[in-house]
User: Fold these one by one.
Assistant:
Number 1:
Amino acid sequence: MSIEQLTRAVDLLANQVGHWTPARWRDQGDQVHKLVQRLADQAADLAGAPRRDVPRLSDLALPDQLKVVAADLAAAAPPPELTTAAAEEIAALRHTLT
């Protein structure tokens, strides 16, 4: 799977959750934050950098945080199997959240 496909999956999820109400974020925001953290950890591992906790700035910031960590992951030149796994995880979360 290509970086473009990963980026597309991220965009679809960010657009899906970007209009959520505060109640919806309370119910399902943790799932999005956990995904952001996993992607950040993968990017750090590939870059040879230490893993760091992604702060939960606010629920409304999570779609932007998702895009940033996905861009970091793409910049780290992930192998195709990691790109595929990340895109599949994002797609699975999208379907879970519908």
Number 2:
Amino acid sequence: MSRTLTVLDRVLVLVLALALVALGVTAVVWQSGRLSQLHGTLRAPWLTAATTAGWWPWATGATGVVLVILALRWITAHITSSKVADVRMAGSTTAGRLTVDLGALATAAAASVQDTPGVRTTSGRALNDRGRRTIALTIILDPHADLTTITTATDQACTNIVTALGDSATALRVHLRTARTTKTSPRVT
């Protein structure tokens, strides 16, 4: 989500929260009977005249259509694509284009760490994280794994990714998790 959309979300949530608080206070005051103690009467004769006018159904219908379009636009603005586009390589020309599939690169990087002692499972994926292409590697370790060996293997995998891409526009994230239980070998009886 962009910063503008985040700020707009927060402002609209604040306005909605204030409106709901005002509505709640009004309901409490009305239920307690203190609303009748207020002096004066609220009158809106123009509203009665407007609702009986011939343009009123058209105006409310047009307002409804505009609100539906705004709601659909709002929903589509919040839908983020998890698919990362292929990255164009430096050797591309008008005669041909060289691209790298970041998802396949992430999977290959995760597979290169898989055979490291102490690693149970690995996974890699390419994603858009706050508008930036990111390769995320998740590595699940045995509880007693040697972190120096794991760090060396993940550093090598990240170096291979940077070398393959040839630029630093793609962020790398490595998430190490320790397995909760010790892996037991199957019992044979």
Number 3:
Amino acid sequence: MGIQLPRWVWLGAGLLAGVAGMVNVVGYLGFEHQAVTHLTGTTTLLGSAVARGDMRAVMHLGGVAVAFMAGAALSGMIIQDSTLRLGRRYGVTLALESVLLLAAIPLFKQQQIVGALLAAMACGVQNAMATTYSGAVIRTSHLSGMFTDLGIGLGHALRGMPLQKRRLLLCGLIIGSFLTGAVVGARLFVALGYDALLVPATLTGVTGLGYITYRHLWAERERRYDAGD
């Protein structure tokens, strides 16, 4: 029952969720203790800051939200679609995410809020890149939807209703990968400090460059096929 997911979707979802887990835990353990991969908690803290009249916190928290949205906008401009499909410019967005994370490291070390803004923008780029595939909602930077889908599946199972098993397995994969990324990121932060972000930056950069190479070879093959070579 349920959707059919090719191997590259499973691999991509797991990798990106792990990256998000690492980035988020570094942001949380850093000087501002600010989560950067999702905005529910950030918006809650923003409301609290507004109520207290703490304009410094308002500017910082509002900046994180705007930066995340700006990253998503950049991803939308580059990919121009919300449905996952091989051949689109995912490599460019992954490379952009890598550059943003690398740029955030020295700013984090200087305890500049701009570091958190760049990290949030990187996560916005990532989350907008992976949205849906064959009806499956794929969010790799936050887990509320994944836990919701698992809960719905549990409710269906208790009522004896058919389950979309692959969709539920995808939710489990994203949750497990995010958690694993957070564990690895926390250990790396203890050992390396903000240089822990070099790991997710390298993962996204290498994957992005690899995909760009694949996309180029795929386009060249299609060109030769159309030309009858």
